[in-house]
Design a protein that fits this description.
Largest sheet: 8 strands, mixed
Oligomer: single chain
Number of domains: 2
Bound molecules: adenosine-5'-triphosphate, magnesium ion
CATH topology of the largest domain: BirA Bifunctional Protein, domain 2
Strand content: 15-25%
Distance between the termini: 51 Å
CATH superfamily of the largest domain: Bira Bifunctional Protein, Domain 2
Number of strands: 16
Radius of gyration: 28 Å
CATH class of the largest domain: Alpha Beta
Length: about 425
C-alpha cells in the first residue's frame, strides 16, 4: 500500500463536527459587524514579501523568523500573509478607497506563521480582522473596542476576558523613551535573558513583554512609556478612556503592552483570557496612523484589530458555550425502501424543500435495509424520519415517524407533510 500523506505540522483540518461550531461563531461575528456598518473585503493570501517587511518591520519576530517566504517561478519573492492589516492597506490604497473618505472594513481568512505548534498556536490559523481608515479621534478606537465587547457578550465570554490598554504615543515619543529604556537596561545587562539582550540593540521596546521572570522583575524599576507621551497622545488616551468608562467597559491600563508589530502608535489593546493557558490573547489591535503613508499612500489615520478564531472557539468549547442545536444539521431524513422508489423519493424531497424553505432534508441514497437506514436516521440526529416504500409510491403519500416521540407512524399526503414540517420548524 502506498504511504499515506499527512497534513503539514501546525496546519489543521476542520472536520464537519468542528465546522458547524465555526459557522456558529462566524454568524455571530457577521451580525455584529453588519450592525455597525462594516463591509467585508477579501485579499489574496500571497503578497509581495516587501509588503510585510515594510509594514510589520524588519526586526520583528514575524519578519525575522516566522514568515513563509519563497521565490516563485519568475524569481519574485512572495510571502503567505502572516497577518491581514498590511494586505488590507495595500488593497485599500490600490483601489482608491482611502482618498477623502472614511472606511470601515473587515476580512476573514487564514494567516501563516512558522511558529512552534501548540494549543492555540498554529502555523495556519484564522483571523477576523477589522480595519478603519480616515478617522483620527479616539471615538473610532472606542467604537472598535465596544464592537468587540458586544461580540464577547453575544458569545457569552465577556466575563472571561480582560481588556488591556496602553498608549504608545508618537514615533518621536517612542524614540525618546527607547533611549531612556536602553540606558536603564544597559546598566543591568547581566540580569537580562538572552532574547532581551539581543533585542536591546534591535527592538528594545519588545523587551517589555518578555516572558522571562527576572527580566520582568528588572522592568519594575524601568522608565515607563506613559511619562514620555506628547500632549496630543495623552489627550487621545484620556478621551478613549472616558468613552469606555461611559460605555461601562472595564479595562486595565498595562504600561508594558507594546504589541509585536512596528506600525502601531497611540492606542494599543488586547483582550486576554485566563482560560487558555499561555496563548491567552484572543484579540489584539491598535492605531497605525503612519502605515498608509509608509506604504506609499497619502497619509490617513487608521485603527484596527484582529481576533484569533481558533483561540475564541477553544474558549467557547472549554466553557461549554456552544449551543447544542449547533450540532443538529438535519431536520428530516427520508428512507427509501426499494430501488424502484428512488425517483419518487428524490422528487418528493425537492418539492418539500421548495415548500418548506428552512427545511434541511437528507434523502437516503445507495439503498440498504430498513434497519441500516434507520441507523443512519439516528446518526443524522434528525427528529423526523420520512419513509417511502412501494405502497407510498403507489398512493403518492409518505410515511412520517417522529424520532423523539412515542407515536405510531403516520401516512400523509405531500400537503399534510409540508404543513407538519412547517409547524415543526416554526
Ligand atoms: P501572540 O503574542 O499570542 O504570539 P501576536 O501578538 O503574535 O500573538 P497578533 O499578530 O496581534 O498576535 O495576532 C492577533 C491574534 O491572532 C492574536 O491575539 C491571536 O489570537 C491570534 N494568533 C496570532 N498568532 C497565532 C497563531 N500562531 N496561532 C493561532 N492564533 C494566533
Ligand atoms: Mg506571535
Amino acid at each position: 500500500m502506498a504511504k499515506q500523506l499527512q497534513a503539514i505540522r501546525g496546519m489543521n483540518d476542520l472536520l464537519p463536527e468542528q465546522t458547524v461550531v465555526w459557522q456558529y461563531f462566524e454568524r455571530k461575528v457577521r451580525k455584529v459587524l453588519a450592525s455597525t456598518g462594516y463591509s467585508e473585503i477579501r485579499m489574496p493570501v500571497l503578497e509581495p514579501t516587501e509588503l510585510f517587511k515594510r509594514s510589520i518591520g524588519e526586526v520583528t519576530d514575524i519578519v525575522e523568523k516566522e514568515m513563509y517566504s519563497f521565490d516563485d517561478r519568475n524569481g519574485d519573492s512572495l510571502t503567505l500573509r502572516p497577518e491581514g492589516t498590511a494586505g488590507c492597506v495595500r488593497a485599500a490604497q490600490q483601489h482608491s478607497l482611502l482618498q477623502n473618505q472614511t472606511q470601515r472594513l473587515w476580512y476573514y481568512g487564514p494567516m501563516f506563521r512558522h511558529e512552534r505548534p501548540q494549543k492555540g498556536r498554529y502555523r495556519q490559523f484564522y483571523q477576523i480582522g477589522v480595519e478603519t481608515f480616515g478617522m483620527e479621534g479616539p471615538d473610532i478606537d472606542a467604537e472598535l473596542i465596544m464592537l468587540s465587547a458586544r461580540l464577547w457578550r453575544e458569545l457569552g465570554i465577556l466575563d472571561h476576558v480582560r481588556l488591556e490598554l496602553n498608549s504608545l504615543g508618537t514615533a518621536a515619543d517612542r524614540k525618546r523613551y527607547r533611549e531612556a529604556l536602553v540606558t536603564y537596561l544597559r546598566g543591568h545587562v547581566d540580569a537580562l535573558d538572552e532574547d532581551s539582550r539581543r533585542r536591546l540593540e534591535s527592538n528594545p521596546l519588545r523587551i517589555l513583554d518578555s516572558k522571562s521572570e527576572t527580566t520582568q522583575q528588572l522592568l519594575k524599576g524601568a522608565p515607563v512609556l506613559s511619562d514620555y507621551l506628547d500632549e496630543e497622545s495623552r489627550q487621545h488616551f484620556v478621551g478613549l478612556r472616558a468613552m469606555l468608562d461611559e460605555a461601562g467597559i472595564a479595562y486595565v491600563v498595562n504600561p508594558r503592552l507594546v504589541r509585536g508589530l512596528d506600525y502601531y502608535g497611540k492606542t494599543v489593546f488586547e483582550w486576554v483570557t485566563e482560560e487558555l493557558g499561555a496563548q491567552g490573547t484572543v484579540c489584539a489591535g491598535g492605531r497605525y496612523d503612519g502605515l498608509v503613508e509608509q506604504l506609499g499612500g497619502k497619509p490617513a489615520p487608521a485603527v484596527g484589530f484582529a481576533m484569533g478564531v481558533e483561540r475564541l472557539i477553544l474558549m467557547l468549547e472549554t466553557l461549554g458555550l456552544v449551543p447544542a442545536e449547533v450540532h443538529n444539521q438535519v431536520d428530516a431524513y427520508l428512507l427509501v425502501l426499494g430501488a424502484d422508489c428512488s425517483s419518487y423519493a428524490l422528487s418528493l424531497a425537492e418539492k418539500l424543500r421548495l415548500a418548506v424553505p428552512s427545511l434541511r432534508l437528507v434523502v437516503n441514497c445507495g439503498g440498504g435495509s430498513f434497519k441500516s437506514q434507520m441507523k443512519k436516521v439516528v446518526r443524522s440526529g434528525a427528529p423526523v424520519a420520512l419513509i417511502v416504500g412501494e405502497n407510498e409510491v403507489k398512493t403518492r403519500t409518505v410515511g412520517l415517524k417522529y424520532q423523539d416521540r412515542d407515536e405510531p407512524q403516520q401516512t400523509l399526503s405531500l400537503e399534510q407533510t409540508q404543513n407538519l414540517l412547517n409547524q415543526q420548524l416554526a
